[in-house]
Design goal:
Largest sheet: 2 strands, antiparallel
Structural class: mainly alpha
Strand order of the largest sheet: 1-2
Oligomer: single chain
Strand content: 5-15%
Radius of gyration: 14 Å
Length: 110
C-alpha cells in the first residue's frame, strides 16, 4: 500500500484533472460522476516526489484515516488542506493556478 499515492490521487489538483480528463457520467462539475478506466489512470501525471514528501504525505494520509474513524471533520479538513498545499508545490503551481483550481472546485464537494 502507498498512502502517499492515495493522498496525491485524492488531492484537489487531481480532482480538477479528473473532471477535465475522465469520461463523465453527467456533468462532472455538478452531481455527475467520472469513470476511472485503467487506460485513463495510466495517463494521470504523477510528479517527481522525494522520499521526504512521500513521508509527509504518508503521515498526513494516516492521520486523515484516524480522524475519519472518529468522524472528526474539522481535523480531516485541516489535513486535506495540508495535503493539497504539498501537492500544489509538487506540481509547481503558482498562486493564480491554485486559485483557479479552488474556484472551480468550490461547489463540487458536499
Amino acid at each position: 500500500s502507498e498512502p502517499w499515492l492515495a493522498a496525491l490521487l485524492t488531492s484537489e489538483v487531481l480532482d480538477f484533472y479528473y473532471r477535465h480528463n475522465m469520461q463523465p457520467l453527467g456533468d462532472p462539475w455538478t452531481s455527475g460522476r467520472m469513470r476511472f478506466f485503467t487506460r485513463s489512470m495510466k495517463l494521470v501525471p504523477i510528479p517527481l516526489i522525494t522520499d521526504t514528501d512521500k513521508e509527509m504525505l504518508t503521515s498526513l494520509a494516516e492521520k486523515a484515516a484516524q480522524a475519519a474513524l472518529f468522524s472528526n471533520h474539522t481535523e480531516i479538513a485541516d489535513i486535506e488542506k495540508d495535503i493539497n498545499n504539498i501537492v500544489y508545490r509538487l506540481y509547481e503551481l503558482n498562486e493564480s493556478e491554485v486559485i483557479q483550481i479552488k474556484s472551480a472546485l468550490i461547489n463540487t464537494h458536499g
